[in-house]
Design a protein that fits this description.
The protein is 34% helix and 25% strand. The protein is an alpha/beta fold. The chain has a domain of 164 residues: P-loop containing nucleotide triphosphate hydrolases (Rossmann fold, 3-Layer(aba) Sandwich), CATH 3.40.50.300. The strands form two sheets. A six-stranded mixed β-sheet has the order 5-6-7-3-8-9, sandwiched between helices. A three-stranded antiparallel β-sheet has the order 2-1-4. The longest helix is centred in the C-terminal third of the chain and has 16 residues. The radius of gyration is 18 Å and the shape is globular.
Length: 239
Amino acid sequence: MVLMLSVERLVKRRGSREILTDVTFRAAPGRVTGLLGPNGAGKSSTLRILLGLDRADAGTALVDDQPYRRLRQPLRTVGSMLEGSGAHRSRTARNHLTWMARSNGIPIRRVAEVLDQVGLGAAGGTRVGRFSLGMCQRLGLAAALLGEPRALVLDEPVNGLDPEGIRWIRVLLRGHADAGGTVLLSSHLMREVDEIADDLVVIAHGRVVAAGPIREVTAGYPTLEDAFFALTGPTAGGR
């Protein structure tokens, strides 16, 4: 079950602008790592490079000591959700997951299992175009869980979920980490990150300004929110 996600001295440029500068951190097994930063800080770019969806100009982003593109069974290794479900609006939830399962050698029984797990068991035959934002998020999570992966990489996983859904995903991610899995999640909801994360990585202006166990990163601040604004403000330079 042990799997480490590692980002080492990552650099990414868009034209003449450097959007990631020497970004380095680890997401360890058995722990939930929260990735925090203002809009445009470089969080999504970092996750896209880690998942092989974009290329770095320098540095490495590794899953189990190898690039994502070289994984032999990617969906069984890393479950990810970056932008909702990723499903075409005309497809049903069940058809979308069945296609994913067949194309990745995953048993078809997993489709019904994950639909039930995320609370969409009764909506499997519904076209995605009729889903609410919260339902699309749940379908994206079902896709991430489909291959029973050792690691989960999630961008804003509670976006659009109601309080019950937020509580459910908190329990899900905590359980995955407690079972030895690796969880890396990006979120704007400080309260949720504070409740679930073991470790924090804070990015501002394309650089890591703080990283470590959450209580170390927030030491000296009344709340995680206070620490976040102090670390990511226009004059902040980290610690």
